[in-house]
Design goal:
By secondary structure, the chain is an alpha+beta fold. The chain is 27% helix and 33% strand. The chain folds into 2 domains: 6-84 and 225-235, Phosphorylase Kinase, domain 1 (2-Layer Sandwich); 85-206, D-amino Acid Aminotransferase, Chain A, domain 1 (2-Layer Sandwich). It has 6 helices and 14 strands.
Amino acid sequence: MSRRKKLYEGKAKILYEGPEPGTLVQYFKDDATAFNNQKHATLEGKGVLNNRISEFVMVSLGRIGIPTHFIKRLNMREQLVRKVEIIPLEVICRNVAAGSMSKRLGITEGEQLPRSIVEFCYKNDDLEDPLVSEEHITALGWSNPQEMDDMIAMTLRINDFLSGMFAAVGIRLIDFKLEYGRLYDGDLVRTVLADEISPDSCRLWDMETNEKLDKDRFRRDLGNVTEAYAEVARRLGIMKENNVVSIDEGSK
């Protein structure tokens, strides 16, 4: 695309002004970060894989009626998305104890939870995205009760769909993080799924071996990060066996 105005650069993506009013271009970087950016690396091809996987998931969710900001994939690294006002919360859905939950509550990693649990974190890097309650959220004006009900309902529906989708290809959905935004259309405001869904934002384990196929490979120095992401893409049918993803197409 021609030169565009950069609006925001995060740890894994860049947002540019879109070609039409109310749109943005979301660019997926190869950067990998962990522990609030204390650990950083560039993993060649990661952005391409996340773009393709997130496109596949967003399109699949749209087909079952989940409203999202996704419009279309533009090239190997970029998506056209609707401009939304991001709600300053990370919505986490947990099916199995892992990561911070295991440390926080002393639950053995890998233990199946009695039911899926939805948690909220305040989206603030300086504060390391602290866990917050619904009382904090409504009292401090980050969201309102109706919006929170919508986010919880959509998150649980997304969880049901993704759990089945991944299980069908031998992957166990341990947990995942979502972000939502407010889409304005005149006086109407809709809550829609935003950001991305990829191995950067999900914990995905092989159902037979418990091998990690997600960002924990980077967090825990397990190696073969992009290979694990490519395996997720291959199982979902996004990549064919032994297919090599081009990292140059559309990367300018």
